[in-house]
Amino acid sequence: xxSTEQGTSSAAPAEPTTAPESAAAPEVPESFYxxxxxxxxxxxxxxxxxxxxxxxxxxxxxLGYTEEQAKANPFPFENIDGDILQMVVDWCNQHxxxxxxxxxxxxxxxKEKLFDLVLAVNYLEIKELLTYCCKQVAMMVKGKxxxxxxxxxxxxxxxxxxxxxxxxxxxAGKEAAGxxxxxxxxxx
Amino acid sequence: MKxxxxxxxxxxxxxxxxxxxxxxxxxxxxKNMKKLIKSSQIKRFKSISRIVYYYDITPKxxxxxSVKPIFHCTGRWTRVAKANEFILKMVECKEDAENDxxxxxxxxxxxxxxxxxxxYEDYCPVASFLxxxxxxVIESIHNCLLNFFGDSIEYYWVAxxxxxxxxxxxxxxxxxxxxxxxxxxxxxxxxxxxxxxQIIGWMDNPFKPESNFYQTESISLNLNSKRLLEVLSYxxxxxxxxxxxxxxxxxxxxxxxxxxxxxxxxxxLEYLEVLTxxxxxxxxxxxQILNAIGVKQIxxxxxxxxxxxxxxxxxxxxxxxxxxxxxxxxxVRETDNRVASISIQxxxxxxxxxxxxxxxxxxxxK
Lengths: 188, 366
Description:
The complex is a heterodimer of chains A (about 190) and B (about 375).
Chain A: E1 4-5, E2 32-36, E3 42-46, H1 47-50, H2 54-61, H3 67-72, E4 75-76, H4 82-94, H5 111-124, H6 127-139, H7 146-153, H8 158-187
Parallel strand pairs in A: 2-4
Antiparallel strand pairs in A: 1-3, 2-3
Chain B: H1 8-17, H2 20-26, H3 31-40, H4 42-46, E1 50-55, E2 60-74, E3 77-92, E4 102-106, E5 109-116, E6 124-129, H5 134-149, E7 154-160, E8 172-177, H6 183-187, E9 198-203, E10 218-223, H7 225-234, E11 239-247, H8 250-262, E12 271-277, H9 282-293, E13 296-297, E14 329-332, E15 338-345, E16 348-357, H10 358-363
Helix pairs in contact in B: 7-8, 8-9
């Protein structure tokens, strides 16, 4: 359903290849759109699969692109790593037009990958996948003591929070004093 | 992975996916974390109807939330896969804590904890303490839960049979369940000022009319006909389910209804269910009872409204409402014109008090 090809950093996206979509062709020809992440690899995705993303769905619903226009104007998601976007595209394809199951066991187990996936999914507004990701993140601290939870999620201690708060206040005070001085200078 | 790097909505989503016991433990990570949990999970915490303290046969206690049961079907059998969500367990121990414990400051008291990683209470935090500290530990845990979940939730202490330790704590309702022996023997061991939320058990011997026993909000008792008459005379609570295996004097029921109608007694009563034996001349007695009570009738061709109220069910989620009463017969209280539906079916008498006046009640008839 989707295909990827190593793109270049130029504005024109590389020509993607199309994998066979399914055995039974849809009666109405489906429209496709193109997305790419930080790595510029372009992914061809059907409008049906993209419906999972409220952000992209909102973008495409008003465009009325032809196939050629869509190909020439892939949606750039420069804030999303290529491999993460690939995961998202795969998930959208797998769950296209299907009710989402209560659990998804195919999410990455590595902390950093999962962290990036959560941010991407949140940005793209894919509600169901975000719920799965949140569940997976929550599972990381199941059965852990408060100290272990602190370590896993890098949560500051009360003392660190207080120090950070003091520092922020100090900085805000300095900034306010700077602004007052600048305003006084302007007045002169 | 730094949790604070996630947008607030994502943090909220992660917390929403955590089990309550996990959230409880996480609230000890920092003050800010506790604030975040409390502010982001307001709706979830508000949906908790009751938190239950329960001691089982061993000296182990558990604190859990009653949740809507999840049923698991295997072939011909259906079992309850989950009816409670554990918050923590409590264990009285004779020695100092084991190696894998950690210490938490629970409402000013340092208590040893470990994580239970076996059985159906998978990953439940377990508080361990010396028996001598039991009262103060339970008090601290209760205060901590009040602070974390709020005081709008009902907190139930379930005491049963030989485990009659009942702590006196703020906002704590007590349910007494006696399966072995008689209620009056147990009652004599309890503090005289204690007013209970619910009593379930057998009652053979009488209580004095002025006893706090009659102020219990909900009772579910097996008793003889004499005791039944006494309960019908003195009960001041909201719900009563009384099972009497002997035949039962109509006089008791007519007196009960007359006192309710006059507004003299049973002003808090919402629901009464009497299961009894009327003997073989049931048909005759049903008419006799209804005549003796002096009921009013709804047109037989019309459908009466159905009465049901949330059950004061203690620690269980099952059957959250009383059995519906849909009856063409009713009585009206003279003092405020409120209606009570009366149903006499075979060996069951149901009496359900409406919030509606007679006029409002009749408007509900279809």
